[in-house]
Amino acid sequence: MSTAATLRGAAVKRIVFGTDFSPVAERAATYARGLALSFSASVDVVHVFDTDVYLDDAEPRLRTLDDRLGVRSEKLEALAKMFSAEGLRTRTELPVERPSWSGLLKAAEKEEADLIVVATRSKAQLKRVFVGSTVEELIRQAPQPVLTVGPRVLAAPDGPLEFKRIVYATDFSPEAEKAAQATLLFAERGKASLHVCHVIDCRANVEERPTAGDVRTHLEGLLAGSSLGAYDCELEVTYGAPAESILAVAEKVKADLIVMGPRKHSFWLTHVKRGVTLEVLARATCPVLTVH
């Protein structure tokens, strides 16, 4: 299934929410719930049991695998009641899979999900997004957009969720149109103020750096021909280190959503290697949507 095509149709019909039952995952659940209410979407609540991870967990070693799966099944059902109490169509899944991100992706593929929602923990634990998953692998491999709720993000308010101030970071690559489509979907639904951000990396050679004026002109031209062309966007062109600059723009405009992409071109591959995406996920005070 082409998720980009689904988003182009302005619809999020199926959400997969991955949880490890941690406090930050509880906050992520409020975003899955709010978006499901906003889009009248179904929610598949998934906990992937990675046997490699749970060999060293805090549970008593006398418990059998069936015992441990039983405990998690009870937790899943309790969590699912939070969604069903709102009238949402809800399912639960408890796959035994390793690595964990693979189990989540399989669940998302089976359910033909339009969106994956997960939580990250502290910066020191960023290689785990839920129950041993690697956040970089999840956002690299998922064909769906991934909404990540970091450790500094507060719970979403009750009721349908609409984002009101969105920062969309772009690198001008052709694939950025896919991220623009997802950005537009959420911006239109919430009638949000939309800030399109491009960072001129201060680490590049001075001779290779474009001027802010040239970048702004180029950005205006690209936006005019993109799905965001008819939307009233504020342009944010800055010099600096990418992660710090994106976070600074988000803080300045009090963003409640950051959209980053694409993953398969220069912005993504370069910046993931340098830790920019992980840095934004760790430090953002709002959810981050990653799209390729």
Radius of gyration: 19 Å
**What is the arithmetic mean of pLDDT?**
82
The 3D shape can be described as globular
Q: What is the H-and-E element order?
A: HEHEHHEHEHEEHEHEHEHHE
Number of helices: 11
Strand content: 15-25%
* CATH superfamily label of the largest domain: HUPs
What class, by secondary structure content? alpha/beta
Low-confidence sequence ranges:
1-6, 125-133, 262-274
SSE diagram, text form:
Elements: H1 3-8, E1 14-18, H2 23-39, E2 42-46, H3 51-54, H4 65-84, E3 90-93, H5 100-110, E4 115-119, H6 135-141, E5 146-149, E6 165-169, H7 176-190, E7 193-201, H8 212-224, E8 233-240, H9 242-253, E9 257-260, H10 266-274, H11 276-283, E10 288-290
Parallel strand pairs: 1-2, 1-4, 2-3, 4-5, 6-7, 6-9, 7-8, 9-10
Antiparallel strand pairs: 5-10
Helix pairs in contact: 9-11
Concise account of the structure shown:
By secondary structure, the chain is α/β, with parallel strands linked by helices. It has eleven helices and ten strands.
Would you write up a description of this structure?
The chain is an alpha/beta fold and 292 residues long. It folds into two domains: 3-149, Rossmann fold, CATH 3.40.50.620; 165-290, 3-Layer(aba) Sandwich (Rossmann fold). Helices cover 42% and strands 18% of the residues. The chain has eleven helices and ten strands. It has helices at residues 3-8, 23-39, 51-54, 65-84, 100-110, 135-141, 176-190, 212-224, 242-253, 266-274, 276-283; strands spanning 14-18, 42-46, 90-93, 115-119, 146-149, 165-169, 193-201, 233-240, 257-260, 288-290. The chain has a ten-stranded mixed β-sheet with strand order 3-2-1-4-5-10-9-6-7-8, sandwiched between helices. Strand 6 (165-169), helix 7 and strand 7 (193-201) form a beta-alpha-beta unit.
